[in-house]
Prior knowledge:
5-stranded mixed sheet
Amino acid sequence: MNKSEDITSYLKHYGFFFPSAEIYQGLAKSWDCGPNGTELKRKLKDLWWKYFIASQPYNVGADSLILTHPRVLEASGHLKNFYDWLTECQNCQKRYRLDNLISVEEFAAFLAQEEKQNLSISQSCPNCGQNKFAKPQQFNLLLSSDLQTTSQGKKSLVYLRPETCQGIFVNFANIRRSTRKKLPFGIGQTGKSFRNEITLHHGIFRTREFEQMELEFFCSPEEREKWWKHWNQRAWIFLSRLANDKEKIKQVQLNHDELPHYAQKTTDLYFKYHFGWGELCSISDRGDYDLKNHSEKSGEKLETEKIIPHVIEVSFGVERLMLALLENGYQQEITKNSKGKETKREVLKLHPLLAPYFVAVIPWKKTLREKTQQIYQKLLTEINFSATYEETDSIGKSYHYQDVIGTYYCLTIDDQTLQDETITIRERDSRKQIRLPQQEIVQFLNQEYQKFYHEFVKI
Ligand code: GAP
């Protein structure tokens, strides 16, 4: 799959992402998660949580609000500094992010000008072919809303958070006091963020509403370098254990003029998507930028052990990581069926812990439905991972559907099950099958799941 239309159609057909409000012609370039996308997203966030928070001796979690007080974003610098340069074609009114329209060198030269007055764009508008661009202007990316605070309609402005971490910084003192943490320690959070992006492209890659998984790790200034290396390495291991193809991921160190306004140092992790390399994670040394500014603006001392801690941040985008793993995992293989005939197999080779369903329970034929459903329902009460029931016209079709959505094991109930209470277990990637007594199935699946989990979280 290397064409955008094929990917969009796969994501929709197999229940990963649907165009939002499609029955009303859709909300432009916005996406809802379908059932399989929801399972994958839950598992990804859960694994991130286990890897970055629960399995770490220093880290705790938070869950702050999306609605954000304007003073928070004033102190964080987002009101002033969180913008892209926008230009518009004066012929067809198509809007462009300047850095996407012109070359890196041209953009750097433009930024270097004090007045930002002179810009001649050599290329023509990709939409209409004309070369009539408006003077570039700063476009703030914050999305806002009004809360009606009195019956007379008095309104008060709130912002939708552009990054989850500001909720961590403003709660720093409460979290530290209530957990009695000493430096170094981290606070992690997953959830929605919002940005009024000028252009949206590549499906779920760039959207106005998306989720982040962020860890803010607080340490003393002397230990910054040590923890910078540590979290860069952990983020890389997390990604490479999931993506499993080192050719498709890379680390990029940002130059000084590319840094976000809060960062002193940033490494981005990139994945090679169908459209080219794209950023899916950013790791930043934020220094004491956030806590210092919030201390000054709020009057509350955000200190511990007599210092303002420094922050190393790891920030993953959930949908971008999902897209990378879906593109990476989807494969078409030529295989031979039981009669030796070559057939094409579509399979989604996600990490087993991320498979929307770890196991599917399938009757070999319709007459075995009742027995299969009994086994399925019993299994649901005995396992900690997700299972699904599958029934189509033929076992081949059932395997096809479960392979293409990434289910890791298929349990097949056949005539022999009725005689000797054994069940066939088929593994997704190798298609190898074994038979086990029914009473051993739960233990086998639990052990396998635990094995994948321990291998994943180990250092
Ligand atoms: N707190 C740091 C921060 O927000 P960022 O590089 O702006 O850093 C982190 O964002 C990650 O969030 C990105 O690497 C990307 O995966 C995701 N992200 C940012 N903007 C996005 C958008 N418009 N659509 C989807 N994901 C986005």
